[in-house]
Amino acid sequence: MSGETDIEKLIKTMQPELSNEEYVFSTSTMDLSSILEIDPWAIIQENEGTTVIIDVEKAEKNHILYESIFKRITLKIHSSLNAVGLTAMVSVKLMELGISANVIAGYYHDHIFVQTEYAEKALIGLLELSKSSRVKINNS
């Protein structure tokens, strides 16, 4: 599998990038072809229903209900889907800042959705994590 697996390299070179767009999470009972017509950012099929992640403007245009608005932070390193620890380290950093992290792994990058009002704080925190002198991993 391609992509980086070394946790220290992943953290030090992750280059978090904040999107300009705002997104919402919603659930849909529409059939897949109808969902594709509204051009969501992501579709996740779960047993209970289909989750769509969609630009807030498209959601409003299509009368899609949502609860919160998020910004997306993309980690600009090609992380392997077999890499161990990246999601955990990012989540712990955001937890320390009191920020919810909704993580989606793509083939090339990890994407973290954070509430819009905390997006800048989350980006700064992840940049601090990346610049930290040493990745601390407890292997006990």
Task: Give the overall form.
Answer: globular
Strand percent estimate:
25-35%
What is the mean predicted local confidence, pLDDT?
Answer: 89
- Helices, by number, come to 5
Biggest pleated sheet: 6 strands, antiparallel
Give the strand line-up of the largest sheet: 2-3-1-4-6-5
Low-confidence stretches: none
Q: How far is it from the N-terminal to the C-terminal residue, by CA?
A: 27 Å
Report the structural category. Answer: alpha+beta
Radius of gyration: 16 Å
Oligomer: single chain
The secondary-structure element order is: HEHEEHEHEEH
Number of beta strands = 6
Helix fraction? 25-40%
Provide an overview of this structure:
This protein is an alpha+beta fold and 140 residues long. It has helices spanning 7-12, 32-37, 56-61, 86-96, 119-131; strands spanning 16-28, 42-46, 49-55, 70-75, 102-105, 110-115. The radius of gyration is 16 Å and the shape is globular.
Which secondary structure elements does this structure contain, and how are they paired or packed?
Layout: H1 7-12, E1 16-28, H2 32-37, E2 42-46, E3 49-55, H3 56-61, E4 70-75, H4 86-96, E5 102-105, E6 110-115, H5 119-131
Antiparallel strand pairs: 1-3, 1-4, 2-3, 4-6, 5-6
